[in-house]
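Journal club prep, notes for RB
We'll compare a predicted complex against what the paper describes. Inputs for the coenzyme A case:
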Amino acid sequence: MLTMEDVFPPFRLRIRCGAIEQRVLRDDDIPELVDLVRGGVQAPGTPMPFLADWHEAPFAPGQPGAFPAVSLSWWWQQRAAFAPDAWHLALTVRHDGVLVGMQDVHATDFPLTRTVETGSWLGRDHQGKGIGTLMRQMAISFAFDELDAVACESGYIVGNEASRAVSRKAGYVDNGQRTLVQQTRQGAVRAQEQRVIVTPDAVVRPGERVVVEGAEELRRFLSIER
Ligand SMILES: CC(C)(COP(=O)(O)OP(=O)(O)OC[C@H]1O[C@@H](n2cnc3c(N)ncnc32)[C@H](O)[C@@H]1OP(=O)(O)O)[C@@H](O)C(=O)NCCC(=O)NCCS
């Protein structure tokens, strides 16, 4: 009988480095993910890091417009984007098997641009321990080594010092600023995003080797030619 990995090859992807493992989000991960978000994501006094403050939505399971319903819809949408010209890998991040956060890697028109965009977050209890730096370094090492990306882009809200530091430590350089709109409990607000970019010649890789399984099947599934 076929397995889910045969049917949907992104599920075969496994990116490991030391105690950290990244895999495409599965339904079985979701209860643990919801608990992680409930433990807090944004440190007090830091800028709201996302386009919408989904992590601050009231917890009301089974209710529309609340957490986790809105986030479930978002997570499942990520998995539905797997066409070669628009794909999205929502990767769970586990530390010694414990779910600690999410690392997204996504791209539009990748065969032409060879550029990916990343985004990430960790539960509060897992921040400030070097995991954010390592998980980003793992994701971009994977993009350069296994997808043959030529650039990885990211962005952070001006004032998000932890995200700025992660970008710097992974080898990114500034790539301009843009104004964007964030959806918050208080309504739509304007924010300034610092764009950053890293290329293979500048990337700072993790101290330990990044081991990737399932990359060949993923490349075939996303029509990525080497
Ligand atoms: C941003 C985030 C992923 C970083 O991960 P992390 O594991 O906390 O970061 P690390 O422990 O790897 O630390 C990276 C660097 O940030 C620095 N740093 C952390 N918080 C800082 C702060 N408030 N001010 C200045 N530097 C800070 C650390 O000192 C470290 O640099 P160093 O090793 O040179 O000392 C994590 O904090 C997080 O999830 N925050 C909430 C969501 C978020 O902001 N996501 C990013 C959206 S762009």
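Talking point for the session: The pocket of coenzyme A is lined by residues 41-42, 49, 120-122, 127-133, 156, 160-163, 165-166 (CB under 6 Å).
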